[in-house]
Structure formats: C-alpha cells, structure tokens
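Let's do one together. I've listed all components of the complex below, 806 residues spread over two lines.
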Amino acid sequence: MPSLPAAAVLPAAALPAAVLEVANAAVRFGEVRALDGVSLAILPGECIGLVGHNGAGKSTIVSVINGGLTPHQGEIFSDGTRLAPYGIGVARSRGVRCVFQELSLCPNLSIIENTRIMHRTLGGFGWRTRAAAIIASSLDAIFPGHGIDVSGPVGALSIAQRQMVEIAMAFSDAGQPPRLVILDEPTSSLDAGLAAQLLAHVRRFVASGGAVILISHMLNEILETASRIVVMKDGKIVAERAAGGFDHAGLVEAMGSAVPHQTAARRNLAATEPVLDLALPKGQPFRACKGEVVGLAGLGGHGQTRMLLALFDHHSPQWWPRRDPAVTFVAGDRRENGIFELWSILKNMTVAALGDLSRRGLVQDAAEAARGAEWKSRIEIRTPDMNNLILSLSGGNQQKVLFARALSTRAPVVLMDDPMRGVDVGTKREVYGMIRAEAEAGRTFVWYSTEMEEMQLCDRVYVFREGAIVAELTGEAISEHNILRASFKAEAA
Amino acid sequence: MKLSTDTLRLIVPVVSLLVLLAGVFYLQPRAMSYNGLNLLFNLAVPIALATVAQMLIMAVNDLDLSMGTFVSFVACVAATYLHDTPLLGALILLAAIAVYAALGVIIYLRDLPSIVVTLGMSFVWAGLAVLILPAPGGTAPEWARAVMISKPPLLPMAIIASALLAIFAHLLIMRSSFGVLIRGVGGNQRSVQRAGWSILMARASAYALAATFAVAAGICLVGLTTSADANIALRYTLLSIAGVILGGGEFTGGRISPIGAVIGALTLTLAGSFLSFLRISPDWQIGAQGAILIIVLALRLLLNRLESKGGAA
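Okay, and this is what the predicted structure of the assembly comes out as:
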C-alpha cells in the first residue's frame, strides 16, 4: 500500500494513469465493517462492472469514490496525484459523476433548473438557455426520441423519465467533461429498449476514453457491457477478472460463499390451512400457514417491505382497534419506526398489549410490571431495572424489547421487516431460538431479511424480484445459491 | 386541457381574491375608486412583504414563528433609532439580518427544529421591542412616510407596491440561479449537496434574505401608522404562513410561489374588510376569517387531487 506524503506523485507506471484510484480504503459503521481494505483503480477507457449481494459494500465504495464519504483509512489518487483532502467538490472537478440508486433530482424544480444545480459553473445571464441546450443535447445523444420537455418540472415525469434525465445529467458537459460516470442500478426503472440505448451509450463513452462503473443486478448487462468485473462480498473484493473470465453461473458462484450454513430442522407445513394470504399484482400469490416460518428473500427494496406493510394493512382495521389483533409487526429500522426513544424499557415493551393489561380503560400497573418481569427473564433483557430508558440498552437488547413487544401480544402472526439489522451474533442466536420455539407453539412468522443465514432458518422462502415473487423454495432447496440465482435475472428482459 | 402546474397553483389564490373583491364592491360600491382601493389594500403591503419573507423560510423546509415579533421589533427600531439617528438605526437592522443568517446556520448545523428556535427568538425580539419602545409612540422616518402616503397617477400606491413586490420576488426566487438553489435545498437537499454546493451558505442566505424582506415590512408598517408599538405586528406570524399556503405554497418540498404569496396576503387583508362590510360583529370576525381560509384551502386540496389525477393519466 502506498503511504506517500500529501500531493506526492506516484512513480510512472506502464499503464495509463488511473482516472481515479482508491487504495486500501476502510469504512466502519459502528461495529460493521462496510469496507475492509478495498483497492480499486479505474483506468480511462474501461467499464467496470461491480457486483455483489446487499451489504457487500458496493454503495459504500461508490460513496468513497464520489467524495460523499471520507474513509477511515486509505488514500485516493487521480491521474497519479494523491488527492487530500478529498470531497464532493474535488471529485466533481476531476470529472466524477454519479447516478444514484434512489432518484436524486429536486422534484419541485424544472429539468433546466436541476441542470443548473448540477453544474455549479453554469451561472450568469442567460443560463436557462445554456442549461436547456446542454441537457437536451445529452438526452438526445443517449436516448434518441425521448420526447421529454426539458422546461417541465421533474415532479411531473414518470419514474423512467426521471431516471433518463438523471442519467443524461451525469453524462452532460457544461465546460467540465465527465471522465468517470458511476451508474448505480441505472436500468432498474427503464424498459428493455431504453436500457439498450443506455448501454450502447456507455460503450460509446468508454470507447472515446471515458470510464464507467456499472452496478446492476441484471448480470447480463454487466457481462455484455463491462470490460472488467469486480465482485464484492462483506466489504472486500473477492474476485476481479476481465469480462471474458466470468459467465453467468460463475458470477453467481463468486458472489455467494462456499461455506454451507448450519440449517435448523425444517418442517413442511405448506399443506395445512393458510392463515394469511395475499394476491400480489404480479407473480405468485403469497401464503403462510399456522406455525410456519416464511422467509422473504431477494435483493433489498424489491417489494418485500411493501408486501409486509400490505399484509399488515390488510389484516388490521383502519378505524377501530380489534379486541384480538390478527397481526403484529417488528420493525427493522429501530430508530425510525421501532422504539419510543423517551420511554422506559417497560413502556416500550407493553405498548402493543395495553388492551390486555388494562381494565376499564386504565392500565393496571401491577399487571404491566408483572408482564415486564416475565419477558425480562424469558428473553434476558440485560438491564437492572425495566423502568430505565430504552436508550440505555445496547442495539441488540433494544431489538429484543421490540421482539418482546410483538410476542407478548396475542396476535397469531408476526411480520418482521429485516429485524436483525445491526444486531450482534449472540443476540441473533437467542432470537432465532425464540422464533423457533414460538413457531413450534403455533405462531406464524413472516420474515424479511437480507441475510442468507436467516433464510436458512425458514420453513419456506419466497424470493422477490422487481416487486413480485419469482421463486418459492422449500426444504433443501433453500440455499444461498438458489436464492442468489433467483434474485438476479437470468435472462435479459 | 394542459395547464402548467405553476399556473394551476395560481388559479385558487387569483379566483379567491377576485371573488372577495367582487363581494366588497357589491356591498360597498364606493370602494371602487382610487382612494377606496388604496384604503382597502394599503395595510396589505407590509403583510405581503412579511409573507414573502416567510415564504423564503418555507422554501428551505423551515417555518419562522418569530415573524410577527420580528416585524414589531423592526417597526420599533424604525420609529425610534432610524428616525433619530439613521446611521445607528441602519446598523441595528443590519445586525438583526445577520442574526437571522446565524439562525439559519445554527438550525442547519445543529439539526434543530426551526419552529423551536424561532419560537424562542420570538421572545427575544418581543423583549427587545419593549425595551426600545416601552409605550406606543415614536415617529416614522419622513422618507418611509412619504413613500407610503404617495399618490402615484392611475393606480394607488398599495396596488403598485404589491405588483412591484410580486414581480421582484418572482424574478429573484423563480428566475435567478440563487432562487433555484434555495428551492433546490427545499426540494432535495442531498442532491444539491452532492452537486458540490454549500448548504450552509444557501440556508444562511435564505434566512438573511427573509430578514431583509421582514425589515422592509416593518419600515412600511411604520410608514403607514406613523408610530410604532411593541405589539404592532404580532398577528403577522400566522397571517404570513396563511398567506404563503393560500398562495399555492407548501410547508415542505420547496414548492412556493412568490406571486401567489403576494396575492394570498392581499386576499387575507381583503377578507377582514369584507367581513366588516358584511357587518359581522367583531366577536365573530376571527372565526369567519378562519372559515374563509378553510374554504379556500379546501379548494386548493381539490385542485391538487385533480392535478395528481391528471399527472397519473
């Protein structure tokens, strides 16, 4: 690893100087190592395909490259010069542009005005005319016949049109040409024709000396477009070959892990009476039976959370609470929609079951305390006093409280939205045991998780892609390999 | 039928202003004159300025609950220091604008709720106003008085001032790069940041510009009333927020309309006169004013529904 003083010049290499080079970058979020010593050099005239499962570190390395995130360790070079300090401004001045996965235009502004925001140097009298010309020519070059009116507001565009504008924005040139364009799932909302137009433009751009990093879950796009493929897993680069070195199966293989996970005793309950079902707008319908643990797998954001919420809405009354709740929900995003930060552990735990703990509309303190003590010992919440604030607990224990909240209700179905995010291994094991025991006792669990290991614990797994169930796996068929294969599209649409 | 979103947003404020105006003319035909119009609208000028100020704060997804006390404070400064020692008065007002810019910085850096910070500041401004002018009094600066009572040919001052304000605010906020930046911060702060802009500067300047408009509101108000009082503009806080919403703005998302905001302020002022002409007892006037607001906002909601349906089709 190079450890040169600031602004030192690397020795001239045989290769052309990299447009951008990240050396030994490490990023930690709390206990999680999002990037663990990653080095990546992007040369002019190449398209790097970056693949990996959720949480592999793709988005983190992208944030490091575009300057949005300063790595805790590591250096960044461009054209042989070390850039320190590095930030969004420096990255942009080096011609680094990024199309993000989530749409990042200002919906209240017109396309022209968004162009003005993207190009800081565009100011001065008459900028509207110049901005209109710049974005229109870029749109015309990438998506001929796009039919988008650049003076209209972004908010009125369809998702696909917004994505097109965003891509055109990244490739547009306002005096400072783009040299490295990062495309993070650029085709996720484009149809096949538009995707083909984009990929053709990427090839043209690369042929003229530009560099592109392409992230996509459509492995065919990667295989057809990229000149080099980098596979990431657990914050590391695990494989890196020229595009010819991979085929579809080899790529799926490289993303998975070789070590088989331990599996729990599975039961086949699919034949029994379903307690939950939901028809989805496309793909297979969803169904869950009594005492079953149903896993929802697939890449993040492909409709799993949306389906859980739909299930919840479908089975819980909108206007008046029912005496016997049908479903209960364990949120994954604790801080956002799980805990009440200012409440005690006890209050946080009992809030879902207050109806059972009250008489004539008044909460019975004694019953509440007894319920708290019971669950404290059952799931071992590590606190001297249940009346302490919820925030005095570690993240894992907070999550246990959320589980206790759900399990202490009488609801026969528990919906879980990736509940193990940022929870330590020990707590996970305890919770897995609890889920198993409760399922044996006849509770149904619907479990969305991005972690393969947790899918191994399910009786049955649905794999989601693009908002629909594309595969149903049972018994021995539940494996990392099968889930990955179903999550990534085999054929181009 | 293909109207731009911005035009659609302007329809409700324009129509409600015209309906109210027709109602006033019907009840009191003598208002249909140069002097009548001036009397109807001259108190709207400072309210319109305060509304534009509030709109700038709302453009960056914040809310200013100290608008009323700040305008009162400015009025007190204008009626005392700005009249007696103009240089010192101007310095005080400049310092007040700097304080606003600093508030924008603090709210952003510490990630504080703007409502809490500005509510706190409202007590500071109110206290300062009482310190400067413990009892109603003071004298308006001659130039401010002269501007406010001027009688331009053809159209009364109040109409011309409102129109000029609307055009100026429109050019500044809807057409200039600076305005795009501020609305961009309200629309999607992250994307503005990723493009390499300083959010800190954008927010500070939005707050400073808002304070500048509020200062103008205070001076205009003193010019009209000739003297000041520490509580002179307390109702401006809610009037300004209502004016922005009435004019087609929204609390979040950087969706604002300067022309709409000015029209909204005129509508609110006119609603008061309309109710007086209807001989509704003052006890009921505030309630009736609220009812008018609810009706207009319900119309807005209805149009928004139509708009989103049209977008989906």
